[in-house]
Design brief:
Elements lengths: L11 H21 L24 H13 L2 E6 L4 E4 L5 E4 L4 E2 L9 E9 L2 H7 L4 E3 L5 E16 L2 E2 L1 E2 L3 E7 L7 E6 L11 E4 L6 E6 L6 E9 L3 E8 L6 E2 L1 E4 L9 E7 L6 E3 L2 E3 L4 E3 L5 E2 L3 E10 L2 E10 L4 E4 L4 E3 L1 H9 L3
Parallel strand pairs: 6-12, 17-25
Antiparallel strand pairs: 1-5, 2-3, 3-10, 4-9, 5-7, 6-7, 7-8, 7-15, 10-14, 11-12, 11-15, 13-14, 16-22, 17-21, 18-19, 18-23, 20-21, 23-24, 24-26
Helix pairs in contact: 3-4
């Protein structure tokens, strides 16, 4: 392309004439392009195609919707008590007259018992219910779960309370004596839509038992415990691993942060352990865990999850934890909830 030199023009008429010619030549050059090739594409001048960062609303709404879809409802007569059985085999036994209103006064007649059962890590991811547990000293570590549950009761629009304990009966392939009852703690809310950190309830234990299965009626082993509060409950045990521990950080693709995605670690061959990396460093743009309790040499998979409109955006990639491990999330996949569920369920 020829370079146009500016000439000193003494007369205003000559200045405007040359300016007009210069502008005309510039317009012609922009239309034809710099190449003499007749097949070269034309230059199109317009607004740049800039995609605004999304705010994470779709992901938050999907998590809330998945929790709500998981609710099962049952009718119970307070005066007689009775049992209810969830779709996945959880059994709740309510003694007579232990349900009260918000003032502690006895409730009579029919009430609605609501139950959520979560037994696998794909459900944990879709409902954002990881197995992050808090030690007595405040450290956050990963738990291995035997089942996560939400239980409450309503009469009409009024939420109800308990004046005594009811029994929870949870199916298991094999009874693990290290399993304990953990309560879901969240100082900001007390309902279904809470970000939970599990805390061990040292006053409650679990006993082995047996009973029939959820669907086929087969005889199965069970954990038996007693709960005296509604809300979130988890049966868990702490991970015992003698290997040296380290910190783990995750770098996510540009445009993502703690407002529009979640990052998890799932442990190979522990299908009910799911750690949420719930700390985000705005200076480094890294997701991290809390206290460097991840064993060096552990085989894991990192799960990145976001959502844009009706599609999930995700990545699932294997790794072996190294010292001061930094994982970089690579190629992202777009798919349905069923696609994401299938990928997670195929993990070791």
């Amino acid at each position: 392309m020829k370079t146009m030199k500016t000439m000193n023009v003494m007369k205003s008429g000559s200045f405007f004439k040359h300016s007009y010619i210069a502008i005309l030549i510039l317009i012609i050059q922009l239309c034809l392009g710099c190449s003499s090739d007749d097949n070269s594409p034309a230059i199109i001048i317009g607004e740049p195609d800039i995609q605004e960062p999304f705010d994470g609303t779709a992901l938050k709404d999907a998590i809330a919707e998945n929790r709500n879809k998981a609710i099962q409802e049952f009718s119970l007569t307070v005066e007689t008590g009775g049992s209810i059985t969830g779709e996945q085999g959880t059994v709740l036994y309510f003694p007579p007259d232990i349900i009260t209103d918000q003032h502690g006064d006895p409730v009579t007649g029919e009430v609605t018992i609501r139950l959520i059962e979560i037994y696998d890590r794909s459900s944990m991811v879709l409902t954002k219910m990881p197995t992050n547990g808090k030690r007595e000293n405040g450290d956050i570590e990963t738990l291995i779960s035997a089942g996560e549950f939400y239980i409450d009761a309503y009469q009409g629009e009024e939420s109800l309370l308990l004046s005594g304990a009811f029994q929870i009966n949870v199916p298991t392939e094999e009874f693990d004596p290290e399993m304990r009852i953990f309560d879901g703690q969240d100082n900001d809310c007390d309902g279904i839509q809470c970000d939970i950190v599990w805390e061990e309830n040292t006053e409650k234990g679990l006993e082995p038992g047996q009973g029939d299965g959820a669907e086929d009626g087969t005889w199965v082993n069970r954990y038996i415990g007693f709960l005296d509060n509604f809300g979130w409950t988890n049966l868990d045990r702490w991970i015992i691993d003698p290997r040296p521990k380290t910190s783990v950080s995750v770098a996510v693709p540009e445009g993502y942060d703690n407002t529009n995605c979640n990052v998890y670690i799932t442990i190979d061959n522990e299908p009910t352990a799911l750690a949420l990396l719930d700390i985000y460093n705005e200076e480094t743009s890294l997701f991290t865990e809390h206290y460097g309790h991840i064993p060096i040499g552990m085989e894991v998979h990192f799960i990145f999850v976001s959502k844009q409109e009706d599609a999930y955006v995700y990545a699932v990639q294997p790794a072996t934890i190294g010292e001061n491990h930094i994982e970089t999330i690579g190629t992202l996949t777009t798919g349905t909830e069923e696609d994401l569920t299938a990928v997670i369920n195929e993990l070791p």
